[in-house]
Design goal:
The chain is α/β, with parallel strands linked by helices. The protein has helices at 7-10, 69-72, 101-114, 132-141, 143-148, 152-157; strands at residues 28-34, 37-44, 51-55, 77-81, 125-128.
Length: 158
């Protein structure tokens, strides 16, 4: 009968094969209660990094950003919510919730405040990819949204 090697000798570190691959950022799946609605969101990246808010369009959800979030999370605090009625967020009855662009914009404003995402600072970047909600509010508010979102209104008008 042969002698077995102790486990400490069989588990050796791999030989140095050059620089290590970058770590894959962890994506957290969370909810926060805003106006009696549970708003689902994905979040990744350092808590002290500049915020990048990813707002989905119709008829999608934050799931559309699942491959983009890890690519940005090494240098941004990436936050991607699902609007009420979309994705994993609550979908209240239309008789109990106003599904208007204005109300959805207010929900997102409250959402960013609840997360301490610095919506009112110049450190926030907003990605508006096919986002009819964001486009409507940028045009409706003009310069106010441009100041809040670091110039997104100008980009939408172009």
């Amino acid at each position: 009968m042969s002698q077995l090697e102790p486990i400490s000798q069989t588990l050796r570190p791999a030989p140095d094969e050059g620089p290590a691959a970058p770590a894959i950022p962890v994506i957290h799946y969370k909810t926060v209660r805003i106006d009696d609605v549970n708003v689902f969101y994905r979040e990744a990246g350092p808590a002290d990094a500049p915020v990048l808010l990813l707002l989905h369009g119709f008829p999608t959800s934050s799931h559309m950003f699942r491959n983009l979030i890890p690519l940005l999370a090494d240098r941004y605090r990436v936050i991607a919510p699902d609007y009420p009625g979309y994705g994993q967020s609550d979908a209240p009855k239309h008789t109990e919730f106003a599904y208007t662009f204005t109300h959805l914009a207010n929900i997102i404003d409250q959402f960013t405040v609840a997360l301490g995402a610095g919506l009112w600072s110049n450190q926030i970047g907003v990605h508006v990819f096919n986002c009819d909600h964001g486009k409507h509010n940028a045009r409706r508010s003009g310069g106010q949204v441009a100041r809040k979102y670091g110039g997104v209104a100008a980009a939408l008008e172009a």
